[in-house]
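STRUCTURE:
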């Protein structure tokens, strides 16, 4: 027999969940009226702070790379940043790439498509 939303699925009994409490509804209404949304406004503000890509470190890496663009190792540059942070700043903030495409051989006419 069928009663509401309860049922049996793969041997498990599912019962309808109770409605939210009055205080929960009032809290959501108040949040919507104050903030204009009922979404979580703290999303993205939790967790460990990542300070490796600070403006100061980006500027230090930029200066070092402009002084010697071929030397892209953090250890050789003497900046004191971890290699991963140096590479992340180089790729994401400065948009430098770890390699350059180079044409090494000329294709003979027989190899061209």
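SEQUENCE:
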């Amino acid at each position: 027999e069928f009663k509401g939303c309860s049922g049996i699925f793969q041997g498990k009994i599912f019962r309808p969940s109770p409605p939210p409490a009055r205080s929960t509804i009032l809290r959501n209404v108040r949040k919507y009226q104050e903030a204009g949304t009922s979404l979580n406004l703290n999303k993205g503000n939790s967790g460990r702070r990542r300070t490796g890509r600070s403006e100061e470190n980006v500027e230090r890496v930029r200066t070092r790379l402009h002084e010697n663009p071929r030397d892209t190792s953090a250890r050789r540059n003497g900046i004191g940043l971890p290699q991963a942070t140096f590479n992340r700043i180089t790729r994401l903030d400065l948009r430098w790439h770890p390699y350059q495409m180079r044409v090494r051989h000329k294709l003979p006419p027989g190899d061209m498509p």
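REMARK: The longest strand covers residues 7-9.
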